[in-house]
Design goal:
Layout (H helix, E strand, L loop, with lengths): L15 E9 L5 E13 L5 E8 L4 E23 L2 E29 L2 E14 L2 E6 L7 H13 L1 H28 L4 H4 L4
Antiparallel strand pairs: 1-2, 2-4, 3-4, 4-5, 5-6, 5-7
Length: about 200
């Protein structure tokens, strides 16, 4: 999957390119509006499955995976506050998740085409559980180096809090990306070819 599957229009996964996404949080200690463009996800192809459960009668798959290091690199625009500190900037973001456990829950439905049954994924849920998160945002506070360095230091000292507040938004945005990639395969390859009977 590193180079994708051109015949099925599956894009390369190293890196996986995403055009953009918006992250909004509106309550709690972290209130930030973030817009990302030109996103690159590095490290997905180093993932390995740690558990796999298929309930094909009900068109459901549950898997856990671990990724040693996933880098989320993108152009960003951000404005908001963390605890009592204002934060704003426009530049390049690098969010690194170390030893990232991802819980995948895929819910499908049958689609019959030309006498073959396909499994279309109608809902794809993910949960991110990183061992550690490293955050870096360039050009914070219009390039004020002292303020930017101090804020990046503060973000990393409180990375668990910051990431936990933003995690659900990242999960929702990236699950739709994973769903799209999965359906590029599942919508074109019949179930009995993906899941051959013993």
């Amino acid at each position: 999957m590193t180079k994708g599957i051109p015949a099925l229009s599956v894009p390369p996964l190293e890196p996986l390119l995403v055009s953009g996404m918006n992250i909004e949080t509106g309550a709690g200690p972290v209130v930030i509006s973030q817009v990302y463009h030109n996103i690159q996800l590095h490290g997905l192809t180093d993932s390995r499955l740690t558990s796999y459960k298929a309930d094909l009668k009900h068109y459901r798959l549950r898997t856990d995976s671990i990724t040693p290091k996933m880098d989320f690199i993108a152009d960003y625009v951000m404005k908001g506050r963390i605890l009592v500190l204002p934060i704003q900037g426009k530049g390049v973001a690098n969010i690194t998740m170390v030893n990232l456990v991802v819980k995948h829950d895929l819910i499908g439905e049958p689609v019959i085409k030309d006498g073959e049954t396909y499994m279309h994924i109608k809902d794809y849920k993910v949960k991110f559980i990183p061992e550690r998160v490293i955050l870096h945002f360039s050009n914070l506070f219009n390039g004020d180096k002292a303020l930017g360095d101090n804020m990046n230091k503060f973000l990393n000292q409180n990375s668990d809090l910051v990431f936990n507040e933003l995690k659900e938004s990242y999960e929702k945005s990236l699950s739709s990306v994973f769903q799209d990639v999965t359906n590029k395969i599942f919508d074109k390859v019949p179930m009995n070819k993906i899941f051959p009977e013993e």
